[in-house]
Amino acid sequence: MRHNTRIFACLTLSILALTSCARHDAPQADTGSTPQKKAPEEIAATLQEKLPVMMEAARIPGFGICLISDAEIAWCQGFGEAGYGQPVTTETIFQAASLSKPVFAYAVLKLVDDEVLDLDRPLLSYVGAETAREDYLGEGFDDPRAQEITARMVLTHTAGFPNWRRDELAFVFDPGARFGYSGEGFGLLQKVVERITDQPVEELMTVSVFEPLAMTSSTYTLAHVDLDRYAWPHEPWGEMEPKPEDLEERIKKAEPHVAATLSTTAPDYARFLIALMTGDGLSENGHDDLLKPHSVVEDDGSVAWGLGTGLERAGHGVRVWHWGDNGNSKAFYLADPQTGDGFVYFSNSYNGLSLVGEILEVAMPADHPVLLSSLLEDYPAFGSSTFLFAQAVFEEGADGGLRVVEELREQGGAIPQEAQVNGLGYWLHRKERLEVRL
After folding, report:
1. From CA 205, how far away is CA 190, in angstroms rounded?
2. What's the CA gap between 257 and 14, in Å, rounded?
3. pLDDT tens column, 23-35
């Protein structure tokens, strides 16, 4: 293993030597532009032509997408394979990953409207510190700052927790101090909501969201998923993720987590996205509060966070967006509440987020600050230098990666950065793909 690690280190150093004199100029977003309105039929026709080609190049086996126009579903289609030779259809069930969070946030805002929950009341005042430790924080957790966390902080990612704990849960920063994306905060809020409503979260979501919005194929509980319709996750090199031998036992034991375990179809989620844009089921004040920028992601304010959803602040108003990353399953949505236009897509591939920019260009052409956000910097765009580098490594190993870097340098193009090279290498190392990594 040490020998393999040294070889990868040599690859990294070789690439960094080639990149040391390269220039990396990032484009600047013009947040004052207004999106160009396209007919949904035109968008659908273009995507039907382009998506299969891009999916093949990006090693994305399966893809499900819905377009929304004037707050109505205009078109949905499945592309490619779900796994085991099954085609992706509009009924295929995907992992929503972090797109789970906005759906739960919507249910929380309904509880606020019903005066069951106060966004600004400390969560532990509802259940007590000892119960919170037993339910979620952990028996050894004793940081008094937990007494300050509110539902608003969780929904706007300012609670101070990490995205996920490594061992024991601990604060990264003081609650309310700044933005810091966190699934752990949602886990705490879930347990508090279950206590104060006396309902398991699956039951709450079914009654509050799934049934009213006709999301008939959606669930946070893995045991409820119809595996005959499931989009099986795929590795970045295109192979299906190995199925664990104890899969049935894992499914039985898996507990719902509102930050990441939603399983859904593209049409189901599109119905939710329409409600998110229109405020269907929420009070006017609640919907207005949802769309306000409560925390800032980028210093210029172009990307911010509302109550449970990301916000892209442009000259004409605010668009809602979110990305999902469960490793070998990815998802993304972006929509404009003022026009009622948007889209949501799901993929059963590690590479699924590489197509965000391409789809935005077709479906909602405009300057999109989200594409330059630090939140998406780990996902190389289709056709970018890092994308080309990664594909060459999968095809030809280290020699292919070096060849691409040399070609890019000769052409004066952007070169993959150290963090991007390391990220790819460590991922391959964790997956024990030494023959590819080397």
Report:
1. 11
2. 42
3. 333 333 344 455 5
Q: Please give the Cα distance from 295 to 126 (Å, whole number).
A: 24
- The 3-state secondary structure of 99-132 reads HHHHHHHHHHHHHHHCCCCCCCCECHHHHCHHHH
Question: For residue 3, what pLDDT is reported?
Answer: 41
Domains of the chain: 2-19+385-437 (no CATH), 40-98+219-376 (3.40.710.10), 104-202 (no CATH)
Q: End-to-end CA distance of the chain: give it in Å, rounded.
A: 12
To which residue do tokens 């779900």 refer? 82
Written as six digits, the tokens of 51 are: 């998506």
Annotate 146-162 with b (16+ C-beta within 10 A) or e (fewer): beebbbbbbbbbbbbbb
How far are the Cα atoms of 93, 269, 308 from residue 183, in angstroms, in the given order? 22, 20, 11
pLDDT recorded at residue 15: 41
> What average pLDDT does range 216-230 have in this prediction?
98
What pLDDT digit, counting tens, does each position of 369-418 carry?
A: 999 999 999 899 999 988 998 888 888 888 888 899 899 999 988 888 77
The whole-model pTM stands at: 0.90
| Burial class of residue 26, CB neighbours in 10 A (0-12, 13-18, 19+) | exposed
